[in-house]
Structures are given as structure tokens and as C-alpha cells.
Amino acid sequence: MTTKTAPGEPYGVRTPLRGRDAAMAFIEKRLDALGPGEGGIVRVEGPAGIGRSRILAEAAVSARRRGVRVFEGAADPGQQSVPLGPLLEGVLSGEEPLPGAPRLRDLAATPGRRFWLLQELGDRLREAARNGPLLVVLDDLQWCDDLTLLTFHTLAAGLSSHPILWLVAVRAGSVPSGVRTTLDRIHQAGARELVLEALDDRAIAQITEDVLDAPPGPDVLRLAHRAEGVPQLLVELLGSLREEAVTIENGRAGLPTGPPAPRQLPSVARRLDQLSDDARELVRTVAAMGGTVTVALLAEVLGRSSAALITAVRESLDADLLAESGDLLAFRHDLVREAVEAGLPLPLRQTLRHTAGLPPGRAPGDVTEAGRAARGNAVEADRLRTEAAELAGTAPVAAAERSLKALELIAADAPERPRVVAETILLLWQTGRAARARELGATALAAGGIGPEDEAFIRLALARLVVQTDFSEAVRQARAGAALPGISPTARGRLLAMLAVGLSMSGEHAAAEQVAAQAWETAEAAGDRTAEATLTTVRSAVSFHRMDLAEAFRQAERAAALADALGVSTSQWVPEALWHALLSNTTGRTAEALAVAEEGIRITSQQGRTAATRMWLMTRTRILLETGRLSDARADAEAASPAADEPGPGNLADVTLRYVMLRVALHTGDRQTAEAYAAEARRMRDDDALVVRHFGTWMLALMADHEGRPDRAMAELDAVMTSPAADRPAYAGLIDPADAPVLVRMALRAGRHERAVQTVAMAEKRAVLNPGLPFLAATAAHARGLLDNDLAPLVRAVRLYEDCPRVLARASALEDAGRKLAATRKPEAVPYFEKALALYARAGAERDAARVRRRLRAGGVRKRPSPAGLDGEWPELTAAETRVVRLVARGLTNRQVAEQLALSPHTVGSHLRRAFTKLDVTSRVELTRLVKHRDSGE
């Protein structure tokens, strides 16, 4: 590993920087901007040997002349296993390193402590920048490890307001996917790009004169131009000739014996040495065979299959030695080919060319070999597709990469390409690359010329892709695919099943049931168990909305079992168990729902299924809300929120995350957050999907009621409560059965008695139809007690809620029972209020707790009860945040805290971010110091 950018000096030649005046002026302008406090990112890009490292070194010298503190680091292809090595060595070595090197190295080497590493490294740089501007140089970004890439783009964006200039260099062309992602992110963060082009004729002549100590003659200039303006190759080529082939006559450098024979070059030898044995053998063989060859012929010469060469080929491409040219492999630069070939013994070169059936100097570019290359590509693509299918169930990230590579190998007009596009869309979606998957599908459809069957599978993949973000678009894609003429029963069955899913998720349950019946016949005829698993889930949803919950559970369990037997990668609903968890939660079986959700998060996170993990997190936010874990629900919602660069707001996020955030804000009295999500609700109210409109309307009604406008709340609900619609009777204006008392209370305050009656009737019908679910009986009794102003059903509701983990629903029933008793028997009301207060406080529902305290004071209880679960030393934090802060201050990692508190690392991270903000600390060190200070009582 190198710790600073130091350009090589082959043959002892050190030339002035030539032909880069514009590039240096560009960088110096950015250095000058550091004085007034303006930082930023500059990305220097160019091919191997073009002078990236030299530019970085000159920039560092220029920065030091200005009094700028400089940190220089560079990656090494042989040291990628050292986490954060290039960046840490840069900032912790040199003349003025950052303090705390052992601590930072320890954090970098310890799994699960990246959050703290970013915090502390950011703190150190921020503190250094207060004392003067900084230049952070990072060379050869293409060889950086993942942690270096993550830390670089996170810190560069996060410290953009400080006088820190980040100067990074990266090789042009093919780079690893993680590097490409980093480049995209710094581009979005405003990085300026400096592309180094080949030197012009004047610069070539100047460097030639610098190396040879004399102006070049025409023959020397012709030789110099063979370097094609690449400074490193030019200097090495000329330097190797200085002592033996070049003479100075009449003040000019010439080649009296003519052009020299090809010879080895130091930079080429270094790049060869960095290759694996297989890749080195491949590159040398290509050079011996004339420099242009098909993979199929190369495999034949080496005695291996084309598939066996794929890793070595990729390595040679990544090293910038070879390049793809249609179906051929060719050297990126002819001087490089000559240098490689010069290092081979002549007998070996002749043997290799004879084996290939080539006369001396002949390149294998004829039609026969091109055809052989095409066949080789097809074989390799088939192998990659097979591997992708095998890996999809356990390693979807690796599967997606193989599928993408297969697409690269398949010709644009190949008949199998559309099907591979469909396969790749699904793998990209599963691994969190939805935007790329959408673009791939849209491009394939726009290109046209594909048959109905292929179009059907692409539309099926697109429907599955968008089902969590745009319910209506999923319906459109599935419907268009199912309507295609002449498609197979399997394709039509799966499209109809997906259409039924989309309709069900949109809230169009009658239409979903009709389509599902049609799809079932098609799927059975085709013997398609995949479609059956999806349709069984739809049947469960239909039964739920008909209030037949026993049947809904039976079908949900069958769907989950079918999907499990098939393997999650083949399932169209990812995963079926998610619906089972939602169903369990909605019917009061919350502990079961939470256990299923946590297992889903664990498994999908391990497998790298980003999309499925996000869906499970969204589901868990609803469960945590309704169990009264408000702080955890909010933290999960923040952790699962879509990134800023993801397309669209996301319908599933609408009905989970945004709904949860508004409810939490109302319970906690966070008016600013509530207003922000009420604005989201207004957008949701106009969505194409019925269920999203329904959620948006209910959220706006809750907000209006919170503001003391029950009339407005009921006006919002009139659109969805005109009657208990036949296709959605389970809603009747509600999102959750526990909302029945909320709606009754709202309707009575607005003087809309008929709406209250309708709500109670629906709640009681649901309870009667499902006698085995006490939670439903509790909500019905609670609603009835409010409607009739009757203590008996309220007390019954309190009793029924005791065995149910719905903390907020139980607290609400206790409060309503206490309120009824307070009218005539105040002393008897106090225990109800105190229990309600304890539950609200435990949940973190500050607004509800404050309301109950007022009721207690009105009843003559002057002593303010101490809220359960809060630490008096930490009034700024919720109970959950306090627990996390105390464990973190003891030195636990996020993962260790998560394991101890039975949370996800995402949730722990969200708690920490909120705690940092509330406590006004910016690092782990500050937090630990604050904890010790408060615990000591100072």
C-alpha cells in the first residue's frame, strides 16, 4: 500500500509537467476557493499511463505552497483486503497526521462499527478544517476497498460545507460496480470532473526533448507518436532508447539505424506482475497470437473452455491491458502488446501462433472466427444464466451480476435476449436496483421486435418490480401482458395472478376476486404452483375483507407453505409470509406477527434481498405502532424510508411508513412532523390506487380531529364511508379494527350519529363472525360503550384487552372507562386513569399521557405520576433512546446493542441519530463523556 501519490521516474527521467496547463489551472482555482471556505470534490479520470498520479502530486505541491494541509493516500490492487487502508494511511501518516490513529484503525477493523468510524473520522476532519483548509488526495479509486469507498463518498458529501477539497483519481473505462456507484454518488453531490485526454503534438515534442536533451528529428517524432499521447508510455519508450539507439547530430535527436525493435516497458511489466497466473498467461498468449483474438480461439489454444477463461478475461480488462472490440479481444495499445510480446521467448511465440493456425503477423479477425466467438459467447451466456438461477435463492447479488454479464454476451437480436432481460429485471429488483431494472425493461419494450411470449414475461417482471411502489402501474403492466395474443398458459396464468395481486393491493377486492378465479383455472391447467401460491394469498386477502378471518388465516398459511416449498426466488409475492404477518397483526395476534417479521428481516438481510428486507421493515413499523412501541416504530420507519434517489414516493411506503409516522407524531404531540405527513396524505388522497386514497383520507381525518375539527374530519371520510362498499366491507372507514372506537368518538363529536352507528355495527359483525379473536370483541365492546355512553361494555373492553398486546388500544379503553366513571364516581375513575397513564407513558405517547394527567387533576389527584420507563437524567430522550445511548456509551457496537435489545441495527442507528440531535453531540466520544458526566451527578 502506498501512502502518497508519487509518480514513477522510469530510467531516472524526471520531466516537467507538459500539456496539462488547463488541468492544473482548473485544480488551482479550486485550491484558491478553499481560502474563502469553499470545499468540494474533483474527480480526475483517464486511462492507464495518462498522468493521473502526476496531476495529483503536482496539486499537492501547489496546495502546500498555499499553506493548505495535505493528506495523500493511494490504493494498491494487492491490498484491497485492508479495510479503509488507502484513506486511513493518507490521513494518519505524513507530516501532519490526524490524531487518534489507534482508535480509528480499531474502528475500521471491527465489524459493525462503521457508524462510529464515520462519526469519528468526520469529527477529526471537521476539527482540522476549523484550523485551516484541507486537501485530501485519494489515488487509484478503482482499487479501493468497499469501506474506503463508503467512507469517502459519505464524508465528502457530509463535510461539503467545510473548506475541504477532495481530489480523487480513477482509471477510465471499466471499474467495479461499487466504484461506479461511488462515482455516481459524488456526481450527485456536485463533484467536478476533470478528464485527462491524450497529449497534443506540441506536448509530445516537448517531452521528447526533455527526455533526450535535444529537439527531436522527424524520425524520432514518428516513433514518439506511437505512444499516442500517453505520457507514461512516451517517457518509457524514449528512456529505453536514450543510451543505445538515439544520437545527437547538429543539435537534433535522430535514429540513424532506423526504428528500434520492440522492447519491454517497466509500467507494462508491473501491470503483468499484478495479474494472477491465469490472467498473465492469457495476456501473453493474446500478444503472441498477434494481439487480436476471439475468446473461442483463445480457449482452444489454451486447452480450456470459454467459460473457464471468464475470470482471467475480466481481470485483463480491468487491468486496462486488453479491451473488448465486438467479438474480439484486443490490446488497448499497440505499444503494450509489443512490450508483452518482447518479454516472451521467440520459440514460445512461434509455437502459439502455429497452434492457432495463424501465419506470422496475421490477426484472427476473419468471419469464421467471429462466428466461433459468437458460439462461445452463447455457451458462456447459458452458463451464466444457469449459475444465476442456482444462486438466486441464496445469493441474489451474485446472481444479478451473472445475469447482467450474460446480457452483455448476448447479441441485441438474439432470440433468447428478451427472456434474459426478464430474469435480470427480477434479480436487480430483489437486490435494490429498481431504477436500473425499470430502465432495462422499458428499453427492451421500446426497442420492439419481440414476440408476445417474451413481451409477456418482461411485463410480468415489470409488474413485480413496481408492485411495492406503484400499485396502479403493476395492474397496468400485468393487464397489458395478459391481453397479449398467443401466449402460453403459464405466462397468462402468472400475469393474471400478478394482476389479482395488484388489484388486491390497490383495494379493488371484488375485481381481484374475479381475476383470481380466472387465473386459478389457467394456473391449474398449466400445473403452475408458482401462480397458485400467489393466488392463494389473494384468496386470503379476499376472505379477510369479507371478514372470514378463519378462512383468511387458512389460506395465508397455505400460501406461505407453497411459497416456501417453491423457494422465495420463484414467488411472485415476495414473500407470502409478509401477508400472514400483516393479517396476524390486524387481528390482534401481534406477538406472532412481530416474530414473523423479525425472522423475515433476518433472513432477507443475510441473503442480500434488499427489496424484501425493505418490505419486512415497512411491515414491522405497523406492528410496532400498534403494540405501542412508538419510538421503535418511528426508528424503523426512518430506517426503511426510500433513499432520495429512488423513483416515486412508493405506495407500500404510503400505507406503512408515512401512515405510521403521522400516527406516532399525533400520539407524541409532534405537530411539525404531523403537518409534514399530512401534506403527504393530501398527495395520497389523489393517488390512482383506491387503498392509498383510503389511507390518505383517514390520515387527514385524524389530523383534522387532532386540530379540534371533527366536522372536517368526517367530511374527509364521506368519500370512503358513503356505504360499506361490497368489495371492501372490512374497511368501512377504518385502517385497523382498533380504529373503530376512534371513529365512533370522532363521529359523535361531529354530531354524525349515523356514522357512529354504522361503525359499531361493522365492528360487532366482525367480532361475531370471528369468535376466536378476543381483540375483535374488545374493539367492538369499546366502540359500543362509546356509542351508548355505557360503562359496562367499556369495562368489558378493558378486560378483553388485558390478554392482547395492543397497548394503546387498551390504554384508550381504560381512559374512556375512567372518563365515564369520573362523571359520577370520581374516586373509582382514578385507578383507570393511572393505568392508562402508565401505558401511555411506557409507549412514549406524550400527548395522550398529558391528556390523562389533566383528567387526574380534575379528579383531585395532584401528584404528578412519574412516567414509566423514562430516566430522570435523560428528559430529552425516549425510553428506547435512553436504553440505546447507555449501551453505546459502554462501548457496544450497533449490532451488539441490537442483539441485546432485540432490535435491528437499522433501528438502533435511527435511535442514535435522534439521540445525537437531541443531545447536541456529534461523536461517540462526546456521547460517552456526557453519559459519564450525568451518571456522576456533576
Report a brief summary of the structure.
This protein is 64% helix and 5% strand.
Any overview of this molecule?
The chain is mainly alpha-helical. Helices cover 64% and strands 5% of the residues. The chain contains 45 helices and 10 strands. The protein has a 5-stranded parallel beta sheet, with helices on both faces. Strands 8-10-9 form a 3-stranded antiparallel beta sheet. The protein has a two-stranded antiparallel sheet with strand order 6-7. Strand 9 and strand 10 (328-331) form a beta hairpin. The longest helix has 25 residues, at 367-391. Mean pLDDT is 82; it is low at 1-8, 358-373, 569-574, 644-648, 723-733 and 865-871.
What attributes characterize this protein structure?
single chain, 938 residues, mainly alpha, five-stranded parallel beta sheet, three-stranded antiparallel beta sheet, 64% helix, globular, disordered N terminus
Shape: globular
- Euclidean distance between termini CA atoms: 47 Å
Number of helices: 45
Structural class: mainly alpha
Strand arrangement within the widest β-sheet reads: 2-3-4-1-5
Q: How are the SSEs ordered, and which strands pair?
A:
Layout: H1 21-34, E1 40-46, H2 52-65, E2 69-74, H3 85-92, H4 101-109, H5 114-130, E3 134-139, H6 146-158, E4 164-171, H7 177-188, E5 192-195, H8 201-212, H9 218-224, H10 231-239, E6 247-249, E7 252-254, H11 266-273, H12 277-288, E8 292-294, H13 295-302, H14 310-318, E9 322-325, E10 328-331, H15 334-342, H16 346-355, H17 367-391, H18 396-409, H19 417-430, H20 434-447, H21 452-466, H22 471-482, H23 489-506, H24 509-526, H25 529-545, H26 549-566, H27 576-586, H28 590-607, H29 610-626, H30 630-640, H31 651-668, H32 671-684, H33 690-706, H34 710-717, H35 739-749, H36 753-769, H37 774-788, H38 791-801, H39 807-822, H40 826-843, H41 846-858, H42 879-889, H43 894-901, H44 905-919, H45 924-936
Parallel strand pairs: 1-4, 1-5, 2-3, 3-4
Antiparallel strand pairs: 6-7, 8-10, 9-10
Helix pairs in contact: 1-2, 5-6, 6-7, 8-10, 12-14, 12-15, 17-18, 18-19, 19-20, 19-21, 20-21, 21-22, 21-23, 22-23, 23-24, 23-25, 24-25, 25-26, 26-27, 27-28, 27-29, 28-29, 29-30, 29-31, 30-31, 30-44, 31-32, 31-33, 32-33, 33-34, 35-36, 35-37, 36-37, 37-38, 38-39, 39-40, 40-41, 42-44, 42-45, 43-44
